[in-house]
Specification:
The chain has about 575 residues and is an alpha+beta fold. The protein has eleven helices and ten strands.
C-alpha cells in the first residue's frame, strides 16, 4: 500500500513539474526578477532532477594531430614492412654490413698486382786520366735514356711473393775504347720467394681476409637480430593500438546504452513508475562513462603515436597525420610446441648463438695463425735473369791486324736487336737458395697462442651461459603463453556471465523487481569484463610474439628474410 501511494505521489509531482515548466515557457514574455538563490544546505538539497534540460551530446571522436576523415587501414604485414623499411637502426645495421663487405674487398686487395714503371734521362761526366779509360780531354761522358716496367705482388696461394722487371736503355758514351756506341742494353728478371714452414699454410694476409669474412657474417647476424627486435616491437605496438581502439569502441557503446537508459528512466518517471532520483543516478552513470571515453581516446592517441614512431621515418611523412586502423584479425593460432622442441629450435635459430659461433671461429683463425708463427722461417728463393745487348760498332771495334770486327754479329744492331737477344735467352743468370730465420724461444708467438687458447675457453663459458639464458627465456615465454591463453578463456567466460547478469538485471528492472542501482552496477561490471577480455586477448597476442622471439621464429612466421 505504501509503495502504491509513493508512486502516485511521484507521478503527481512529475505532472505538476512539467506543467509548471510549460506554463512558464508559454507566458515568459516579460521576465520577472528571480530572487537571489541561497546556497543549499543538506536539508534543502533537491531530490528531483531537471527533466527538461537537454541531454549532453556524445563526446567528439576527433583526436589531436590526425584527420579522422582520412583513415589508413593497416595490416600487420604492412606495418612490419614499413617498420623494416624506415627504421633508422635497420639502416645503420645495413650500413655496417656494407662496411664489412668493403673490408673484405680491402683485405683481398693485398693480392692486387702492383705495376711499376720508371723512365728517365741522365748525363754523367767522369774525369779520367788514363788512355785506357778512353778519355777525351781528360773526361768520359755517358748519356743514358733509361726505361723500365715491372709487376710484383703477393700470391694468394701458399704465401709466396713474385716480381718481374724489364729494363732497357740507350747509352751513348765519349769513351774511345767502346766497341758499341750507342748501345742498347736490356734485361728481364723474374724472382719468386716461397715460404716452406712459417707463413706457408697460413699467413697474416689470409688471416685478415678470413676475419673480414667472419665479420661480414657477424654483421649479417646483427642485422638479423635488429630486424627481429623491430618486428617484435612493431607487433607489440600494433596489438596495443588494436586494444585501445576496441576499448574506445566499447566505452562509446556503453555510453550510448547509458544515454538510452536515461531516456527510459525519464519516461518511467513521467509515468510515475520510477522515482526522480533514478534520473539523477542515470546522469551520474553517464558522467562516469564519459570519463572512460575520454581516457580511452587518450590511450588510442598514445598507442597510435608509439606505432607511428616505429613505422615512419619522420613527422613529415603523409601518414603521420592519418589515423591508423588495424585490420588484422585478433584471433591468432596459439603455437603448440613442447618445451624440448622449443628449446632445440631456439638453440638453432637464436642469432645470439650464431654470433657466439662466429666469435669462436675468429678465435680459431687466430689460433691457426699463431701456431704457424711459432714455426721457423724457411724460405725458398729463386731468381732468373735474361740479358740482351746490341749497338752500333765503332772504329775501336775493328781489329787493326785482321780488319774484322771484334763484336759478334748478333750484338750489332739497334734496340729491337737487343730485345731479340734478350728473349732468345742466350745470356741467362740463375739463382736459387734457401733463407733460414729462427728466433730463439719464439716467445711472442707462443704468448699470442696461449692468449687465444684462453680466449677460446672464455668464449665457451660465455656460450654455455648464453644457452642457459635462452632456455630460461623459452621456459618463461612458454609459461606466459599458456597462462595468457588460460586467462583469455577465463576472461571470455567472465564477460559472458556479466552480459547475462546485466540482461537479467535489466529485465527485472523493467518489471519493477529490482533497483536502478543494481542495473548500473551490472552495467559497470560488464564494462570491466569487456575491458579485461580485450586486455587478455592483447596479452595473448603479445605472448605469442614473445614466444616466437624466444624460439627465434619471429622472421619466419612473418615471412621476413634478411638478404646477405
Amino acid at each position: 500500500m505504501f509503495r502504491i501511494i509513493l508512486k502516485a505521489a511521484t507521478a503527481a509531482f512529475a505532472v505538476a513539474f512539467f506543467a509548471a515548466v510549460l506554463t512558464t515557457e508559454g507566458n515568459a514574455q516579460v521576465p520577472t526578477p528571480s530572487p537571489t538563490p541561497t546556497p543549499p544546505t543538506d536539508d534543502s538539497m533537491p531530490v528531483a532532477p531537471d527533466l527538461a534540460k537537454p541531454a549532453r551530446p556524445m563526446p567528439s571522436l576527433d583526436r589531436v594531430g590526425v584527420d579522422s576523415t582520412n583513415q589508413l587501414s593497416l595490416t600487420m604485414s604492412q606495418a612490419i614492412e614499413m617498420a623494416l623499411k624506415n627504421n633508422n637502426d635497420i639502416d645503420a645495421s645495413r650500413d655496417s654490413a656494407r662496411v664489412s663487405n668493403f673490408n673484405i674487398k680491402a683485405a683481398l686487395g693485398i693480392y692486387d698486382p702492383l705495376v711499376t714503371s720508371e723512365l728517365y734521362y741522365e748525363s754523367v761526366t767522369t774525369p779520367t786520366a788514363s788512355a785506357i779509360g778512353g778519355a777525351v780531354n781528360g773526361a768520359v761522358t755517358q748519356k743514358r735514356l733509361f726505361g723500365s716496367a715491372g709487376v710484383n705482388g703477393l700470391s694468394p696461394y701458399q704465401g709466396g711473393s713474385y716480381s718481374a722487371l724489364l729494363n732497357s736503355s740507350r747509352t751513348a758514351t765519349s769513351n774511345t775504347n767502346s766497341f758499341l756506341n750507342p748501345q742498347f742494353p736490356s734485361s728481364l728478371n723474374f724472382s719468386y720467394n716461397q715460404p716452406l714452414l712459417r707463413n706457408r699454410g697460413f699467413d697474416n694476409n689470409r688471416r685478415q681476409i678470413e676475419i673480414a669474412k667472419k665479420n661480414l657474417s657477424l654483421s649479417d647476424s646483427q642485422l638479423q637480430m635488429r630486424a627481429i627486435d623491430v618486428v617484435s616491437n612493431t607487433e607489440s605496438a600494433y596489438w596495443d593500438l588494436t586494444a585501445a581502439l576496441r576499448n574506445l569502441q566499447i566505452q562509446i557503446e556503453t555510453l550510448k546504452q547509458a544515454k538510452d537508459q536515461l531516456e527510459s528512466n525519464q519516461r518511467q518517471v513521467i509515468k510515475g513508475v520510477l522515482a526522480p532520483i533514478d534520473v539523477v543516478a542515470a546522469n551520474a552513470q553517464i558522467s562516469t562513462f564519459e570519463q572512460g571515453v575520454y581516457a580511452a581516446q587518450e590511450s588510442v592517441t598514445r598507442a597510435e603515436n608509439t606505432l607511428k614512431t616505429l613505422l615512419l621515418p619522420g613527422r613529415s611523412s603523409p601518414e603521420w597525420s592519418r589515423p591508423l586502423v588495424p585490420v588484422t584479425p585478433v584471433n591468432i593460432d596459439v603455437p603448440a610446441l613442447p618445451l624440448d622442441v622449443a628449446v632445440s629450435e631456439a638453440l638453432k635459430n637464436r642469432p645470439e648463438l650464431v654470433q657466439m659461433e662466429i666469435t669462436a671461429d675468429i678465435n680459431k683463425i687466430d689460433q691457426r695463425f699463431y701456431r704457424n708463427q711459432a714455426k721457423p722461417q724457411v724460405d725458398l728463393v729463386g731468381t732468373y735473369t735474361s740479358q740482351g745487348l746490341a749497338g752500333a760498332t765503332t772504329p775501336a771495334a775493328i781489329n787493326p791486324t785482321t780488319g774484322l770486327s771484334r763484336v759478334p754479329p748478333n750484338l750489332v744492331g739497334g734496340y729491337f736487336n737487343s730485345l731479340g737477344n734478350l728473349f732468345q735467352q742466350d745470356y741467362p743468370t740463375y739463382h736459387f737458395g734457401v733463407v733460414i730465420s729462427l728466433p730463439l724461444g719464439s716467445h711472442v708467438a707462443k704468448a699470442n697462442l696461449g692468449a687465444s687458447l684462453a680466449a677460446s675457453d672464455r668464449i665457451q663459458n660465455q656460450r654455455d651461459q648464453q644457452e642457459q639464458v635462452i632456455e630460461s627465456d623459452v621456459r618463461n615465454s612458454l609459461q606466459a603463453l599458456r597462462s595468457a591463453d588460460s586467462k583469455l578463456a577465463s576472461a571470455i567466460d567472465a564477460r559472458t556471465a556479466a552480459e547475462e547478469l546485466y540482461a537479467s538485471e535489466e529485465r527485472q528492472f523493467r518489471n519493477g523487481a529490482t533497483t536502478f542501482y543494481l542495473v548500473a552496477q551490472r552495467q559497470t561490471d560488464l564494462l570491466v569484463a569487456r575491458g579485461r577480455e580485450i586486455q587478455a586477448r592483447t596479452d595473448l597476442n603479445k605472448a605469442i610474439s614473445t614466444f616466437n622471439h624466444a624460439v627465434g621464429r619471429t622472421l619466419i612466421v612473418n615471412n621476413v628474410s634478411v638478404t646477405k
